[in-house]
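hiii, so i know i said id send this last week but things got crazy w the move. better late than never?? heres the sequnce for the chain we talked about at the cafe, plus the structure i predicted for it. fair warning i was half asleep when i ran it
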Amino acid sequence: MKKSNYWGTGLSEASAGREEVAFTLTELLVVVAMIAVLFVVLIPARAKDRPASEAARCLNNFRQLMTAMSMYTHENRDFFPPNPGDGNTTAGQNWCPGIAAPGSADEFNADMLTDSRWSLLAPYVSSNATLFRCTSDTRVGIYSGSNTNKLGKRVSSARTISMNAAIGTIGPGVPITPVNGPWLDGFHTHTRNHPWRTYGSVSDLVNPKPAGLFVLIEENPFSLNDASLAFSRSVPKWLDYPSTLHNLGGVVGFADTHAELHKWVTPTLRLSGPGPAARSVAADDPDWTWLGQRTTVLATD
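okay and structure toks below
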Protein backbone atom coordinates (compact mmCIF):
# COMPACT_ATOMS: atom_id res chain seq x y z
CA MET A 1 0.00 0.00 0.00
CA LYS A 2 1.26 3.34 -0.91
CA LYS A 3 2.08 5.52 2.07
CA SER A 4 0.47 8.87 2.47
CA ASN A 5 2.76 11.80 1.86
CA TYR A 6 0.83 14.10 4.27
CA TRP A 7 3.37 13.70 7.11
CA GLY A 8 5.76 16.00 5.36
CA THR A 9 3.24 18.76 4.92
CA GLY A 10 1.72 18.60 8.41
CA LEU A 11 -1.77 18.09 6.96
CA SER A 12 -4.15 15.28 7.79
CA GLU A 13 -5.81 13.29 5.06
CA ALA A 14 -9.13 14.93 5.94
CA SER A 15 -7.84 18.45 5.78
CA ALA A 16 -5.73 17.89 2.72
CA GLY A 17 -8.82 17.51 0.61
CA ARG A 18 -10.21 20.87 1.68
CA GLU A 19 -9.82 23.99 -0.36
CA GLU A 20 -8.80 27.16 1.42
CA VAL A 21 -11.73 29.53 1.64
CA ALA A 22 -11.33 33.31 1.93
CA PHE A 23 -13.66 36.31 1.66
CA THR A 24 -13.40 38.33 -1.47
CA LEU A 25 -13.05 42.09 -1.21
CA THR A 26 -16.63 42.47 -2.39
CA GLU A 27 -17.91 40.14 0.33
CA LEU A 28 -15.94 42.00 2.99
CA LEU A 29 -17.39 45.29 1.81
CA VAL A 30 -20.90 43.84 2.00
CA VAL A 31 -20.30 42.65 5.58
CA VAL A 32 -18.94 46.05 6.61
CA ALA A 33 -21.93 47.78 5.01
CA MET A 34 -24.35 45.50 6.86
CA ILE A 35 -22.65 46.23 10.20
CA ALA A 36 -22.82 49.95 9.47
CA VAL A 37 -26.55 49.67 8.74
CA LEU A 38 -27.09 47.82 12.02
CA PHE A 39 -25.26 50.58 13.91
CA VAL A 40 -27.38 53.23 12.23
CA VAL A 41 -30.58 51.39 13.13
CA LEU A 42 -29.75 50.10 16.61
CA ILE A 43 -27.84 52.97 18.21
CA PRO A 44 -30.70 55.51 17.93
CA ALA A 45 -33.08 52.84 19.21
CA ARG A 46 -30.87 52.20 22.24
CA ALA A 47 -30.51 55.93 22.79
CA LYS A 48 -34.30 56.29 22.68
CA ASP A 49 -34.72 53.50 25.23
CA ARG A 50 -32.25 55.02 27.68
CA PRO A 51 -34.49 57.82 29.02
CA ALA A 52 -37.32 55.34 29.56
CA SER A 53 -34.96 53.04 31.43
CA GLU A 54 -33.72 55.89 33.63
CA ALA A 55 -37.28 56.95 34.42
CA ALA A 56 -38.16 53.36 35.34
CA ARG A 57 -35.26 53.22 37.78
CA CYS A 58 -36.31 56.53 39.34
CA LEU A 59 -39.87 55.26 39.73
CA ASN A 60 -38.53 52.20 41.51
CA ASN A 61 -36.36 54.40 43.74
CA PHE A 62 -39.38 56.49 44.66
CA ARG A 63 -41.45 53.46 45.53
CA GLN A 64 -38.70 52.39 47.92
CA LEU A 65 -38.48 55.89 49.42
CA MET A 66 -42.25 56.12 49.88
CA THR A 67 -42.28 52.68 51.49
CA ALA A 68 -39.50 53.88 53.80
CA MET A 69 -41.59 56.96 54.65
CA SER A 70 -44.54 54.71 55.48
CA MET A 71 -42.36 52.50 57.69
CA TYR A 72 -41.05 55.56 59.50
CA THR A 73 -44.55 56.82 60.31
CA HIS A 74 -45.62 53.35 61.44
CA GLU A 75 -42.77 53.23 63.95
CA ASN A 76 -43.19 56.85 65.11
CA ARG A 77 -46.84 57.04 66.22
CA ASP A 78 -47.95 57.94 62.68
CA PHE A 79 -45.98 61.19 62.66
CA PHE A 80 -44.07 62.21 59.56
CA PRO A 81 -40.32 62.84 59.90
CA PRO A 82 -39.13 66.41 60.51
CA ASN A 83 -39.06 68.60 57.43
CA PRO A 84 -37.79 71.96 58.70
CA GLY A 85 -36.68 73.37 55.36
CA ASP A 86 -33.44 74.79 56.74
CA GLY A 87 -30.86 72.21 55.64
CA ASN A 88 -29.72 71.57 59.21
CA THR A 89 -27.44 68.71 60.21
CA THR A 90 -28.77 68.41 63.75
CA ALA A 91 -29.28 64.83 64.93
CA GLY A 92 -32.93 63.79 64.80
CA GLN A 93 -34.17 67.06 63.30
CA ASN A 94 -34.34 66.44 59.55
CA TRP A 95 -35.66 63.76 57.25
CA CYS A 96 -32.82 64.61 54.85
CA PRO A 97 -30.01 66.92 55.99
CA GLY A 98 -27.69 69.38 54.30
CA ILE A 99 -27.75 71.80 51.38
CA ALA A 100 -27.39 70.12 47.98
CA ALA A 101 -27.30 73.27 45.85
CA PRO A 102 -24.78 73.39 42.98
CA GLY A 103 -21.51 74.66 44.39
CA SER A 104 -22.44 73.89 47.99
CA ALA A 105 -20.32 71.81 50.34
CA ASP A 106 -22.86 68.99 50.34
CA GLU A 107 -23.42 68.74 46.59
CA PHE A 108 -21.06 65.77 46.31
CA ASN A 109 -21.33 64.35 49.80
CA ALA A 110 -23.85 61.52 50.06
CA ASP A 111 -22.45 60.26 53.38
CA MET A 112 -24.94 62.22 55.48
CA LEU A 113 -27.81 60.55 53.61
CA THR A 114 -26.74 57.16 54.93
CA ASP A 115 -26.18 58.23 58.54
CA SER A 116 -29.27 57.61 60.65
CA ARG A 117 -28.28 60.36 63.08
CA TRP A 118 -29.05 62.98 60.45
CA SER A 119 -31.05 61.24 57.74
CA LEU A 120 -34.04 59.70 59.51
CA LEU A 121 -35.01 57.55 56.51
CA ALA A 122 -31.57 55.93 56.30
CA PRO A 123 -32.47 52.87 58.44
CA TYR A 124 -35.47 52.17 56.20
CA VAL A 125 -33.58 52.25 52.90
CA SER A 126 -30.62 50.12 53.99
CA SER A 127 -28.48 53.27 53.88
CA ASN A 128 -28.77 53.29 50.08
CA ALA A 129 -27.88 56.88 49.16
CA THR A 130 -28.52 56.35 45.43
CA LEU A 131 -32.27 56.38 46.09
CA PHE A 132 -32.05 60.12 46.77
CA ARG A 133 -30.61 60.94 43.36
CA CYS A 134 -32.27 61.09 39.92
CA THR A 135 -30.66 58.68 37.47
CA SER A 136 -30.74 61.39 34.78
CA ASP A 137 -28.75 63.83 36.89
CA THR A 138 -25.33 63.94 35.20
CA ARG A 139 -23.55 66.16 37.73
CA VAL A 140 -20.13 64.84 38.75
CA GLY A 141 -17.61 66.49 41.06
CA ILE A 142 -14.95 65.99 43.69
CA TYR A 143 -16.11 64.10 46.77
CA SER A 144 -16.53 66.46 49.72
CA GLY A 145 -17.18 64.09 52.60
CA SER A 146 -14.86 62.76 55.27
CA ASN A 147 -14.33 59.19 54.04
CA THR A 148 -10.56 58.99 53.46
CA ASN A 149 -11.03 56.27 50.84
CA LYS A 150 -12.98 58.70 48.63
CA LEU A 151 -10.96 61.87 49.08
CA GLY A 152 -9.93 63.37 45.75
CA LYS A 153 -12.22 61.07 43.75
CA ARG A 154 -14.94 62.21 41.36
CA VAL A 155 -18.41 61.14 42.42
CA SER A 156 -21.99 61.68 41.35
CA SER A 157 -24.14 64.36 42.94
CA ALA A 158 -25.68 63.43 46.27
CA ARG A 159 -29.35 64.34 45.94
CA THR A 160 -32.16 65.61 43.73
CA ILE A 161 -35.10 64.60 45.93
CA SER A 162 -37.11 67.06 48.03
CA MET A 163 -40.16 66.82 50.28
CA ASN A 164 -43.47 68.66 50.09
CA ALA A 165 -43.01 71.68 52.39
CA ALA A 166 -46.59 71.27 53.64
CA ILE A 167 -45.81 67.81 55.05
CA GLY A 168 -43.70 66.86 58.04
CA THR A 169 -42.95 67.89 61.59
CA ILE A 170 -40.62 70.30 63.34
CA GLY A 171 -38.75 70.29 66.68
CA PRO A 172 -37.34 71.07 69.14
CA GLY A 173 -37.11 67.81 71.00
CA VAL A 174 -39.07 64.96 69.44
CA PRO A 175 -40.63 66.52 66.31
CA ILE A 176 -44.40 66.02 66.45
CA THR A 177 -45.65 69.53 65.67
CA PRO A 178 -46.85 69.97 62.05
CA VAL A 179 -44.71 72.18 59.84
CA ASN A 180 -45.70 75.77 59.20
CA GLY A 181 -45.10 75.57 55.46
CA PRO A 182 -43.86 79.17 55.55
CA TRP A 183 -43.70 79.62 51.77
CA LEU A 184 -47.28 78.48 51.12
CA ASP A 185 -48.49 82.09 51.18
CA GLY A 186 -45.71 83.10 48.79
CA PHE A 187 -43.99 85.37 51.34
CA HIS A 188 -42.54 83.03 53.99
CA THR A 189 -45.04 84.12 56.63
CA HIS A 190 -47.51 81.21 56.51
CA THR A 191 -48.28 79.29 59.73
CA ARG A 192 -49.73 75.82 59.99
CA ASN A 193 -53.32 75.56 58.76
CA HIS A 194 -53.62 79.35 58.23
CA PRO A 195 -54.98 79.28 55.61
CA TRP A 196 -53.45 76.20 53.97
CA ARG A 197 -53.46 72.75 55.52
CA THR A 198 -50.18 71.30 56.76
CA TYR A 199 -49.79 67.63 57.53
CA GLY A 200 -47.86 66.43 60.56
CA SER A 201 -49.25 62.92 60.85
CA VAL A 202 -51.03 60.25 58.85
CA SER A 203 -54.30 61.21 60.56
CA ASP A 204 -54.06 64.63 58.88
CA LEU A 205 -54.31 63.10 55.40
CA VAL A 206 -57.98 63.82 54.83
CA ASN A 207 -57.87 66.38 52.03
CA PRO A 208 -56.46 65.76 49.51
CA LYS A 209 -56.68 62.01 49.92
CA PRO A 210 -53.30 60.22 50.15
CA ALA A 211 -53.38 59.26 46.46
CA GLY A 212 -53.64 62.95 45.52
CA LEU A 213 -51.13 64.45 47.95
CA PHE A 214 -47.49 64.45 46.93
CA VAL A 215 -44.82 63.77 49.55
CA LEU A 216 -41.56 63.54 47.58
CA ILE A 217 -40.58 65.05 44.25
CA GLU A 218 -37.56 65.30 41.97
CA GLU A 219 -36.34 68.87 42.15
CA ASN A 220 -34.47 70.67 39.40
CA PRO A 221 -30.72 70.53 40.17
CA PHE A 222 -30.44 74.28 39.53
CA SER A 223 -33.16 74.88 42.13
CA LEU A 224 -31.85 72.62 44.89
CA ASN A 225 -31.06 73.92 48.35
CA ASP A 226 -32.49 72.24 51.44
CA ALA A 227 -34.57 69.07 51.13
CA SER A 228 -37.93 70.86 51.20
CA LEU A 229 -39.66 72.03 48.02
CA ALA A 230 -40.91 75.57 48.69
CA PHE A 231 -44.20 76.13 46.87
CA SER A 232 -46.33 79.28 46.75
CA ARG A 233 -49.95 78.15 47.01
CA SER A 234 -51.48 81.62 47.41
CA VAL A 235 -49.59 83.48 44.70
CA PRO A 236 -48.98 81.95 41.24
CA LYS A 237 -45.20 81.81 41.11
CA TRP A 238 -42.36 79.33 41.29
CA LEU A 239 -40.01 79.40 44.25
CA ASP A 240 -38.36 76.00 43.92
CA TYR A 241 -38.66 74.20 40.59
CA PRO A 242 -39.65 70.59 39.83
CA SER A 243 -37.21 68.54 37.79
CA THR A 244 -37.57 68.19 34.02
CA LEU A 245 -34.68 65.75 33.55
CA HIS A 246 -36.92 63.00 32.16
CA ASN A 247 -37.69 64.68 28.84
CA LEU A 248 -39.59 67.54 30.50
CA GLY A 249 -40.86 65.20 33.18
CA GLY A 250 -40.12 64.33 36.79
CA VAL A 251 -41.04 61.62 39.25
CA VAL A 252 -43.47 62.36 42.08
CA GLY A 253 -44.21 60.15 45.12
CA PHE A 254 -47.61 60.27 46.83
CA ALA A 255 -48.82 59.66 50.37
CA ASP A 256 -50.40 56.31 49.45
CA THR A 257 -46.81 55.24 48.48
CA HIS A 258 -47.43 55.15 44.72
CA ALA A 259 -45.10 57.04 42.37
CA GLU A 260 -45.63 58.40 38.88
CA LEU A 261 -43.70 60.14 36.13
CA HIS A 262 -45.38 63.48 35.49
CA LYS A 263 -44.81 65.35 32.24
CA TRP A 264 -44.73 69.10 32.68
CA VAL A 265 -46.37 71.27 30.04
CA THR A 266 -44.42 74.53 30.28
CA PRO A 267 -41.02 74.40 28.50
CA THR A 268 -39.79 77.33 30.62
CA LEU A 269 -39.53 74.93 33.56
CA ARG A 270 -36.33 73.71 31.92
CA LEU A 271 -33.48 75.53 33.64
CA SER A 272 -30.03 75.93 32.10
CA GLY A 273 -28.79 77.75 35.18
CA PRO A 274 -30.05 78.85 38.60
CA GLY A 275 -33.69 79.84 38.28
CA PRO A 276 -35.03 83.20 39.44
CA ALA A 277 -35.79 83.23 43.16
CA ALA A 278 -39.46 83.88 42.40
CA ARG A 279 -40.85 83.66 38.87
CA SER A 280 -44.46 84.71 38.49
CA VAL A 281 -46.78 82.70 36.25
CA ALA A 282 -50.34 83.07 35.05
CA ALA A 283 -53.03 82.04 37.50
CA ASP A 284 -54.10 79.31 35.09
CA ASP A 285 -50.56 77.99 34.48
CA PRO A 286 -51.13 74.23 34.07
CA ASP A 287 -47.97 73.11 35.86
CA TRP A 288 -48.36 75.44 38.84
CA THR A 289 -52.03 74.46 39.11
CA TRP A 290 -51.32 70.72 38.91
CA LEU A 291 -48.65 70.77 41.61
CA GLY A 292 -50.57 73.19 43.81
CA GLN A 293 -53.63 70.95 43.91
CA ARG A 294 -51.40 68.11 45.08
CA THR A 295 -49.46 70.18 47.62
CA THR A 296 -52.29 71.26 49.96
CA VAL A 297 -55.79 72.71 50.12
CA LEU A 298 -57.43 75.39 52.24
CA ALA A 299 -57.85 74.28 55.84
CA THR A 300 -61.54 75.16 55.58
CA ASP A 301 -62.09 72.70 52.74
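btw Residues 29-293 form one domain. thought thatd interest u
miss u guys!!
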